[in-house]
Each structure stands twice: as C-alpha cells, then as structure tokens.
Amino acid sequence: MTKEAKQDDLILAPALMSLNLKNEEKSFVNKEILPKMRKIENEEPSHLQINEKFLKRWSIEGLIGKGGYGEIYLAVDVVRGEEVAIKVEPKKRRGKLAKRMILEQHVLFKMQGKPHVPLIFGSGYTDKINFIIMQILSINVGEIKKSSPNKRLSQCSVGRIIHQTISALRDLHETGYVHRDVKPANMCFGIYPQSRHILILLDFGLVRRYKMENGEWREPRARAGFRGTTRYVSIRVHRRCEQAPYDDLVSVMYTSYELLSGELPWKHLEKSDEVLQLKEIMVTLTNTFLGSHYLIFRLRME
Ligand SMILES: Nc1ncnc2c1ncn2[C@@H]1O[C@H](COP(=O)(O)OP(=O)(O)OP(=O)(O)O)[C@@H](O)[C@H]1O
C-alpha cells in the first residue's frame, strides 16, 4: 500500500472473499471458543460503533480485542452471512502516519495460502482509520490457558501448539521476516470443524525484514530499538541486539514454559532490567545443570 493511498484503493481479495463453507458446516461453529465480546463502555473511544454498517457491508457486532495500537471487532458480512474480524487502527499516531498496519497487511497478503496465518478478505482505509478484514478466530491461547482448570495446559496440547507455532514461524522466516512478538495472546485457533485444531499466528505489526529477496541477511544495526513484549523476549532483545529468527524461537520457548507450568518466573517483575537479570540467572542455572550432567556422563564413560 502506498503511503497516502486513497479511499478507493480499498483492497479486496475476491478470490479470498469467503471461506466457502457449506451452510451445515457453519452451524457447527464452536460458540464456546468464539471470541468473547467485550463491552465497549468504559473503554477508550472506539473507532467503529456497534450496529454500524461499516462500508455498507460489515455489520459491527462488538469489540473482541484491544491491543496497544488497534481494536478488533466482531462483524457480520451481510453479503455472505459470515462472521469476520475487523482490525482497525487510527491512521495517524501522534501526528505521524501509522505504518504498523500497512506493514501487517503487506506481510499478511504475502503469506496468504500458508496454513498458519489468518485468511484476509480485504484491507484499506477511510479518512481516519486503517483496517484489515479477516477470518474470525477462537479466543487466544493465553485466554484458553486462563480458562483451563489448573491455569495451565497439558504436555500434549502444548506440544501441538508449539509444533504449529514453529511451522508458522518457518513460513514467515522463509519470506524474510522476523515476527518479534511471539506470545500466547498472538495465537488463536480456527472455529470451524475443519480448522479448530489449526493454530493461527496473529499480529504481524512488529515484523521486520531480516534477509533480502536474494537470501542475503540485512546488516544488523549496532543498537536496535526495543520491540516485543518484555515477558517473552530473548536476552538479546533486552540487550538491544538486532532480532533474528533465533529470537522468535526463544519467545516460543518462554511461551511453552508458561503454558506448561502456569506462569513464567518473572511474571510479577515490573522492571525490564529485573526480568533480564532473572532470565540470565535461568540460563546460568541451566548451563550449570547441563554441564554437571555432561561431566557425570563423561566420568561414567571413562
Ligand atoms: N481474527 C481474529 N479473530 C478473533 N480474535 C482476534 C482476531 N485478531 C485478533 N484477535 C484478538 O485480539 C487480540 C489483539 O489482536 P492483535 O494482537 O492483532 O492487536 P494489536 O493491537 O496489534 O495488539 P498489541 O498492541 O497487543 O500487539 C488478540 O490477542 C486476539 O485475542
């Protein structure tokens, strides 16, 4: 999308306009895991109104997600009679053109056809907002964990989640981008019978190109800005190193630890430096543990 695109540049992807579900399949939607509606009252002023018919086609039903930048609405496509999610962010932030969603839709379009990204039905902008219309998904994995009886997930479930997250990241890394915000809140499942075991990775607003089309890696910056979520970023990110696929995988490791054990050891720490210190201690302990096991192994062999 160009920097100052016009309203009529609204991109719609006709080939992707529908999940092509048969009516009987639609009726099998698992309502339990449909994103719960959040009341808009007492929230920051929203960009769309409930019951509004956005662009004369999508009837806005409720707010289902709110991030630092955008809002995600549940809407019904009145032409197709299908539920969709609409992600919206203000076009300008602090007087500057917001590029986050422009980048996100660019990467999402590139990734269409890959199994672990949301299906995109359209994207564009109005006078005030940028928007992406996409496949509606389940509540996120962080919420699934919270709603489970022990506030943690079984080894089997975590194994499946991690396996699919790694596949999603492999596809993204192959296109030359790093995600930089891998965490349970950015993972959902499909809601139809044929998709409810398929993990979908969300939120491509922080991606960064790490390698060029010809496969060559970009020159890393001496000091990169902090991008990501403190709880899940690697030690390298705390130290402001340029992010690479490795750092996404460290976030996968912290995610799996949290899902399996209920929480990460630094959950209650507020300062980023304290979180870093605890992550470093964990690495030292792990190395000592592995080192002593290796020593015992060597002694036994000799
Ligand atoms: N297609 C979707 N279907 C259902 N729920 C969704 C969908 N997309 C996003 N959500 C919900 O909205 C939440 C926020 O979405 P997302 O991370 O894309 O927004 P964001 O504004 O970029 O967030 P942040 O600023 O925290 O990175 C997700 O955690 C998820 O629960």
From TrEMBL:
Residues 58-302 form the Protein kinase domain. ATP binds at residue 87. It comes from the Eukaryota. SUPFAM superfamilies: Protein kinase-like (PK-like) (SSF56112). Belongs to the protein kinase superfamily. This is non-specific serine/threonine protein kinase. The keyword ATP-binding applies. Coiled coil: none annotated. Pfam families: Pkinase (PF00069). One of its GO terms (molecular function) is ATP binding. Keywords: ATP-binding, Kinase, Nucleotide-binding, Serine/threonine-protein kinase, Transferase. Its EC number is 2.7.11.1.
